[in-house]
Amino acid sequence: MSASVLTIVRAVIVRLLFAAHGIVSIWRLFVVTQDTRYWYLATALGLLFTEALVTLGKKGGKEWKWFCPSVFIYLLSVVPSIWFLEIYELDRRILVRENVTMSSGYLDNTAKDLKATLGSVLGVQLEIHIPISLTSDEWIRTLEQLLLLLLILGRGILPKGKLTHDQLSQLLLVYIGTAADIVEFFEAFKEDEVRYNKMLCLVILGIWSLSLLQFSIVLTAARARRDQSGLVPRVTTYKSSDNKVGCCQADVFGIMISIVLQDAPFLVLRMLLIFQYRVLSYTNMFFTSKNTLVIVLLIYRLVVVQLEKRDERNNAYSLAASQSFDSRSLRSYRTVDSGLSSESRDSKSRLAHDLSVSSNGFNDVENSKPTHIKLQRTTVARTLSLDDLDSNF
């Protein structure tokens, strides 16, 4: 199998996995709510199909360099479904807590399989059945964690495009760390102050959705945190123009996106839980300290990158100034040489001719003389030539 065919197969397999997870998420939402309007969320899968055709036709299955549109469209198909499921469960918890009269089916929280009846063909009943018995809350957590797992697995299977193998391996390691932070972020839902507060739940879902955008930006994950692991030493070069995106260096851009999309929002929310809602649990205090330390390290890294950039710029200016000085010195020498009088040039020619004749007349004697006498004669000739040059000034 050729490399191009294998690239296309890998691209198609990943998009099929994305589409399957999106369909299961929408299906679960329909089973819970029995509202057929939620099937309109599947239109995002049509965008995924269109994106696959464009990528396969224009790029031969290879991914784009800085942005991964297939991951972004995948998030568009799954994230809204999880939002609606979380809001549905939130309303259900609030109603149960307030002892509102409801049907027994509404209160049912037993583990159920996921089934769908497609009708009958020639007397045969067609049904899709996923034999996994989970409660409603477990289904949501499973879909959320499958989302992160497929983002990591999909990035590993997708053609690497312009990424090197070293960059891809570092990218996957950073994806795993980022996914672990996001999973830890959902630990906030276990706090009673959060589980029954609709505003806090919506804020958490919003921050969670914002943090997922990192997976669609290849630059952010590759540049922002790879130096924290210490796996690969950083090599500094003076060709900084190859390492820029827009107006900023790639490292600066990645660090800023990482802080804005994940670490800063996570820290703000956890500090809000501590100081406003008095959530002083061990997990919340630990993760708050962790986010604070990560932000401090990222800011320190940002300062180091800026200092390195300044040193590179100063070195480049020094090299350019040195080259300019050498070129000006050469031009000055040529100007002085061209400004010599004709008499000086004639005298230099006569002196060189006399030395040549003298040397030809005493070849045998010259060959028998020691080497230091030859060097003395050469030195005298050069001194006479320089004295003649100085006399013309």
Short account of what is shown:
The chain has 393 residues and is mainly alpha-helical. 72% of the residues lie in helices and 6% in strands. It has three domains: 1-103 and 112-118 and 125-162, no CATH class; 163-339, no CATH class; 343-393.
Folded structure, characterized:
This protein is mainly alpha-helical. The protein folds into three domains: 1-103 and 112-118 and 125-162, no CATH class; 163-339, no CATH class; 343-393. Helix content is 72%, strand content 6%. The protein is built from 15 helices and four strands. The protein has helices at residues 3-33, 43-58, 69-97, 104-107, 136-157, 165-185, 192-195, 198-212, 218-224, 226-229, 250-275, 282-338, 342-361, 363-368, 371-391; strands spanning 112-121, 124-134, 244-245, 248-249. The strands form two sheets. Strands 1-2 form a two-stranded antiparallel ribbon. It has a two-stranded antiparallel sheet with strand order 3-4. The protein is flat and about 115 Å long. The relative contact order is 0.07. Mean pLDDT is 75; it is low at 103-107, 220-243, 362-376 and 378-393.
List keywords for this structure.
single chain, 393 residues, mainly alpha, 3 domains, two-stranded antiparallel ribbon, two-stranded antiparallel sheet, 4 strands, flat, disordered C terminus
What is the overall number of helices? 15
Work out the radius of gyration.
Answer: 37 Å
Main sheet: strands, sense, barrel: 2 strands, antiparallel
Point out poorly predicted stretches. Answer: 103-107, 220-243, 362-376, 378-393
What is the number of strand segments? 4
Number of domains: 3
Q: How many angstroms does the end-to-end distance come to?
A: 79 Å
- What is the mean predicted local confidence, pLDDT? 75
Find the structural class using helix and strand composition.
mainly alpha
Strand order of the largest sheet: 1-2
Oligomeric state, counting identical vs distinct chains: single chain
Please tell me what the overall shape is.
flat
* SSE pattern, N- to C-terminal: HHHHEEHHHHHHEEHHHHH
Instruction: Estimate the helix proportion, in percent.
Output: over 70%
Percentage of β-strand residues: 5-15%
